[in-house]
Amino acid sequence: MPPKSKTNNGRVYITDLPHDDEDFTGVLVQDAVPVRQGQLQGVGVGSSTSGVVDVDGRKWMQASSWGPEDNSEYALDPKGGHLFNAAVSGEVDVPDNGQGNDNDGVNTTKRPRSKISKRPHVVWKELYRSKYLDELCRHSGRGDFRKIETCPDCVSRGSETPGPATYRCESCFLGDLVCQNCCVRRHQKQPFHKIEKWNGTHFADVSLKSLGLRIQLNHINMTCSVPIPCHFNMVIIHTNGIHEVAFDYCGCEKAESHYVQLLRRRIFPSSQYVIQTCATFEVLDLLHKLSLTTKSGMYDLYRGLEKLTDSTGLNTPKTKYRPLLRMSIQYRHSKMLMWAGRAHDESGPEGTKCGELCVPCMSCAYPGINLPDGWEKAPPEYQFLYTLFACMDANFRLKNQLVSNWDQDPSLGSGMAFMIDRKEYEKYVRGQATDDDISTCVGFQAIAQANNRFSQGLRYTGVGGVFCGRSDMILPQGVGNLHKGERYSNMDYIFASAMKEFLGLATILISYDIACQWFVNLYSRMENIWPSKLKIPTQVRLVPAIPKLHEPMHNQTDNHQQYSLNFIPGAGFSDLETPERVWAGHNAVGNSTKTQGPGSRLDNLDDHFNWWNWLKYIAMGATLMRRYRAAVAERNIQVEAHKGLTDNVGKAVSSEWEAMCDAWDKAPYPKAGVPNPYVAEGYQYTEADARKELAEEEDERVKGGGKVVHETAANKFVIMALDIERAQRKLKVLSKATPDTATSRQQSGLTEQRTQLRKRINTWELLVPLYIPGLLQYQADIAKKNGPAVVAEHPEDYKIWLPSHLPADLRKDMCYPGLPDMEEKMRTAQCYDALDSLRHCLRVKSRLYFQKQKNIRGQRDGTRSRAVIDRVHAKAVMAGTKYRWARAAKMNLSGKGDWEKVLQPLEDKDIRSYREAERVRPKQGRQGTKEDGMVDWEIVPDESNVNFGLEEERDKRSGTGETRRTISWIWLVPRKPDATDKDDDILRVEWAKSRARAARAKEEVLLLKEEMRRSIEFLGWKSRWWLKRVDSRRISDKSLKEGLRAVAMKQSRLQSDLQASFKALWETPLGEFSASDLINAEGGENELDIPDADDGVDEEAEAVTVNVGDEDQ
């Protein structure tokens, strides 16, 4: 396909890249030439400047390979920052009331939508409903053919005795009336149409078989000298219902087997000997697609066909559910074999290799298929481009009950696609039957339930799977049944089976939600337990990781950051939460597969998994383009942000931190003894520390001759007041939770606590005149000015006077010497204690909430889980209230200062877990939900309903926020704000995280470029693979040979079309930043001579097209 051309000021340049004639199998290097991204680089194969790949990183990236355009200015403000300056200094843009822009003279007012456009149902209801109803009723009669009495077909043929026109066909476009003989004659080649007979008052259903229609098979002219009648109860299932049909098999010298004769007419028989039930290819295709897209079981689909045949219950056909289920399984298995090219192989279906029926991931790295020559010699900084990103996890929804057995219900394709062949797998698992279930540091409830009553009566408690973390596709031989929960033996075998195809790679990054435990002894189990054929070569480096949404929920032990994808070099923006997305799309399948026999279930799951992969396969173009645009924008933003932070830190400090980060990145697992740049060391300044410090100061003061005014020292006076405040806050919560209708026991408990608190306040008030001697006069002055103070009814409302409640100018004179400083220390400690408690509550609550959402099902367990979350929520509310109270007091005591940079105001949006991104903007209500004329009332948020750390629902558009998130300041507070070293630790951690974000963003762009290149190369290889199978099978049947050739050519063309489509899509993914829009209109040195598509013909593909033969030749 020649490339399209465009002109720019008289010059012609190519905008569509060549695709059919390119060969990406070899990577040649040429001298650096300024080339626009998005164009083919180094096409001149055989140039004198070319050489073998053994280069540094700069030249490696200049190697000849296709890549999408890139632009370092994409998503950034133009140079000079005029957009920012204009936004800051510009005036408010006042709407023009829909009058358009007078400057350009263009009226931008939208035309008002018509009523039929806005309210089509209303218009139909008011104007057309009665007419539609009448027309439906008209079809129940003879309609336009009411006056026709004799058969028009008989009249047109000149028949002497035309028959009565009483029969019509519901399936034909023109429902005219004909006689019985003409109706049969019309449907000699349409035996599955539905016929009605007019009985004088209404139409009644009749079958073509009852009218005398017989269909001859195996002959084009529909006649045979030796016809053999089919079974008298032959039933055909079609898209419009279930039909009784009379076939005649061929019995002459051209005869084939009866089931073959039916297959030649696109009819799939349920048996091969005495055939009574069949289904057309059309209905099998329809049911197949409906099953894949709706996840409905075959029983529901059959019921629909049954009711389509007769919904009165008077003539319900004999059930054909079991034969239809059997035919559908056989049909889709045959389709999978055909799409995998097994019909083109001499060995046939029996020679199918493990996983050969799968739709593969085109963007994964396959040595010898879509990797460049010499990829092993790529510079270390680019080796991550050839890493496999694998994910694994278990699903306990796809369980299977003890129904039937493997002998009665064998699998048709066990081991041929995704599900592992059970024989060797179950033999290995039985040998490790004493293993305990995997325990995790977060205690997933689903695993804990694997051996209890929830697993009784089940053959399999679920499945485990391995997936490609970049494309969200399921890997071949990557799914296995779980016998009793998520055991090491099961997951090890499934992981090893899925890795067989990728053992030629140098690095495999494996993500597992419990990798911190599973990976620790993996090499030991591999060496001592695994079968030899499953062992992974030592030269393959395995890198453990935990999915992004799971990792923060783990206990953050030493060096736990090594499992975080945010800090693993080469991970890019991979979140590796693929299992959650795959399982979410297949959980509904469990409703039907849990009651199926083991073999049918296996084939059904393989079919659904293959469909999932196919949808990802054909959408790879749009997926990678969307990701690439976002990645380029994020890379530019993160790189610029990190550059600004580095400039502020200084070169000397950043160089030291850079070395620390490099050492961490290069250290192998488990990174023991290497300083962790992502953790700030230090200790927590708690209330206990403050109390100890004040006690020591009081002891030193007394030893130095200080005066003792009371046996209760001043520091204890302050501590006593703060304890009373804490008790008041708790009692307020309790009183609010105790309604007036509470029982006598509940009321008595509240009364007792109030009595105890009142006694503590009375004891404290005795000390007030000693330590705040000026308070009595101050209260008298206030009462004289504002009137008598209102006496609190309950002790929790009583005001506890401390220096922070006094005016700053009077505080020193009114208080005991040093008392304000003592309170200030205690308030500071309270702030840190409250933040520590708040963080702990949010961490626990986040973990509980995630566990509930993923694993808790049922009203009883849900209520119990919710009650636990509510208790933790109440503690978080108390901690947040304590911080706000303490900070307000500290503000009164200390005034404004640098401490505010650390102990910031605690807003509702700040109270979120470390794993939760910043709150998404409030979503606009769905359009069209308000009634006409409805006015939106202003909604005032209730402060009592503030969401303290409860995970908010984020849809796929909001994303997780992890990669681009800015975590709440409460997780960044240094543990000792007045220590310079500790401040540097916090800054160092933030700088290291900024560096990691910039590095991951740059890696993501490179990964996507490489995946685009690999996808294009894979599609070209697959197209040639099909071409080689055009005549690979030596057979004498010319019709079959032509069919095999047609299948291969069609599949080859499909791969080529996908390749061309993806290239056209990826040519200019950056929109207005595209290379074609940035061409210098003046010409000159920057213009490039872009080669024509026909300049580099793929000799291999050309040879294959001319001389196709066996692949091994």
Q: Would you mind describing this structure in some detail?
A:
By secondary structure, the protein is α+β, with helices and mostly antiparallel strands. Among the domains are: 116-212, no CATH class; 214-352, no CATH class; 375-619, no CATH class; 709-817; 819-917 and 966-980, no CATH class; 1035-1070. Helix content is 41%, strand content 8%. The chain has 31 helices and 19 strands. The strands form 6 sheets. It has a 5-stranded mixed β-sheet. A 4-stranded mixed β-sheet has the order 9-8-12-11. It is elongated, with a radius of gyration of 38 Å. It starts with a strand and ends in a 7-residue tail after the last helix. Residues 1-55, 81-104, 440-450, 856-862, 935-951, 974-983 and 1072-1113 have low confidence and may be disordered.
Strand and helix layout:
Blueprint (H helix, E strand, L loop, with lengths): L4 E4 L2 E4 L42 H4 L21 H8 L25 H4 L1 H19 L13 H6 L9 E3 L10 H7 L8 E4 L4 E4 L8 E2 L10 E3 L5 E4 L2 E4 L2 E4 L7 H7 L2 E3 L7 E4 H14 L3 H12 L11 H19 L47 E9 L4 E2 L20 H10 L13 H4 L9 E3 L1 E7 L5 E9 L5 H12 L7 E6 L2 H4 L3 H7 L12 E5 L32 H9 L3 H4 L4 H21 L1 H30 L1 H16 L20 H17 L10 H24 L6 H22 L2 H4 L3 H12 L21 H7 L4 H37 L3 H36 L85 H48 L10 H29 L32 H8 L7
Parallel strand pairs: 6-10, 8-12, 13-18, 18-19
Antiparallel strand pairs: 1-2, 3-4, 4-5, 7-10, 8-9, 11-12, 13-16, 14-15, 16-17
